[in-house]
Amino acid sequence: MTKPLPITSAVNTLSCRAFACDLGQVLVAATPRGIAAVLLGDDVAALEQDLARRFSDCSVNCAPSATQQRWMECVVQVLQQPQLAETILAEMPLHLLTGTALQRKVWAALQTIAVGQTRSYTELAQAMGQPQAVRAIASACGANPCAVIVPCHRVLRSDGGWGGYRWGLQRKRWLLQQEGVMAQMELDVAAK
Q: What's the predicted TM-score (pTM) here?
């Protein structure tokens, strides 16, 4: 599991780079301490605006260090081969710069859901010891700044429905299919 590092009070510098992948465009941003954001979309300019909005107190450049570039390439590899996420991400640092205490707790809980597994929002709330906070936990999933790295795509509705996904349900389906979840869901439906 990727470990989030503590929030710092100093103004941070983000280095970012955009990549094309099977999911469209991805904008990866990192501090010198770790990955801070992984944003998915179809338009790099829109992703850059989203990054600037989310991290308005940070300066942003497009000149990642060699270490940051290596982390970014690992993120792209995970996006291309999500089934390998646990192996690739085992040692990559995550530097979450945003989030309330609850959001950060939810994001940490999401990282415990293994590749090929899913949880419902209700199961996630129960596992966190906050069974009455299902809506707040779902909102925290939607505020996740690190697509795939913090795997909110692995959370479904209690009735087996898709629920939401900030970066689009088509991307959520593709990720779950790559992780082998779709095949299991089809088997479960056929068995009913």
A: 0.86
